[in-house]
Amino acid sequence: MDNFAFFRPTSVAEAIDLASGDQKRDFLAGGTTMVDLMKLAVQRPGGLVDITGIKELESYEIGPGRLRFGALARMAVVADDADLREACPALTEALWKAASPQLRNVARLGGNILQRTRCPYFRDTAYTQCNKRDPGSGCAALEGGVTSLHAILGGSEHCVAMYPGDWAQALIAFDAEVRTRGPGGSRTIPFADLHVLPGDSPEVETILEKGEIIISIEVPVVPAMRASHYLKARDRESYAFASASAAVGLELDGETVKDARIALGGVASVPWRAGAAEEVLRGRTFSEALAREAGRAAFADATPLEHSAYKIPLGADVVAGALMTAHARARAGAKGED
């Protein structure tokens, strides 16, 4: 790890000032991604701006019409919130199924949604071909590498690295927004627009500008949240990234699907909303056969690589399984209201 300068601001304005301009400085929150990448020499900032002293960013609110999460709220604290678990089970489940208890106690929500890929060719500098780490160098995964952990949706001829997070799937499924502040002022970004497809520039991962900091993540409350579920298939039950995952939510009118939300993880280059699968469900009578049809529709446009074709049937089963659990929760909620 290279030597670096360290700063610990106590206000958002001070943090933005320290991270702006020509200095090669990055924000540090929980550090569970940044420190790893610095040890590996994948990221080599000249300075770190530790924002954990900005206490105003730690709060969160579970309101009747909107959920608001400060960027520095801890994953473990939010995951254990009983009100959130009732309001939107998928949001708490996605947090509980991410990382280890030790990491969840340290990691912050804003950093979690910005975590970088676990592609082995990106994280191991012994591989010189990585367009995400070194633009124009090539892609070792696409040039004869092992691709079982790579994206089958949203990749490009320059990069097929997979977005590794869990919580982002629940956020994109329920139309979250990100509030930011930077040198150019404040803005609100639809979560669906935050991450950038690799295209010709895999090194550009979000639309955030230099010095721009996430203030909060906000989610409008909709009925489908109460009957939601996050299902994650992985090599082992804990502390493993998804081979395929799904965050889903259902709103029923009797047995007719009034609203459906489906987002996919472990299979795409960015958090992925499965709009075509949602349309399969809306307005139709729910059944296991319909859930499986939606699962297949979610992967109709998938482009598997040599070692990643297994993700298509696995992902379809995960979507169907998540929908079945959400349906059961919707029916249980309906009975509770009778």
TrEMBL record:
InterPro entries: CO_DH_flav_C (IPR005107), CO_DH_flav_C_dom_sf (IPR036683), Diverse_Substr_Oxidored (IPR051312), FAD-bd_PCMH (IPR016166), FAD-bd_PCMH-like_sf (IPR036318), FAD-bd_PCMH_sub1 (IPR016167), FAD-bd_PCMH_sub2 (IPR016169), Mopterin_DH_FAD-bd (IPR002346)
Protein name: Xanthine dehydrogenase family protein subunit M
Residue span, FAD-binding PCMH-type domain: 1-224
Taxonomy, superkingdom: Bacteria
Keyword Flavoprotein attached: yes
Keywords per UniProt: FAD, Flavoprotein
Record GO terms (molecular function): FAD binding; oxidoreductase activity
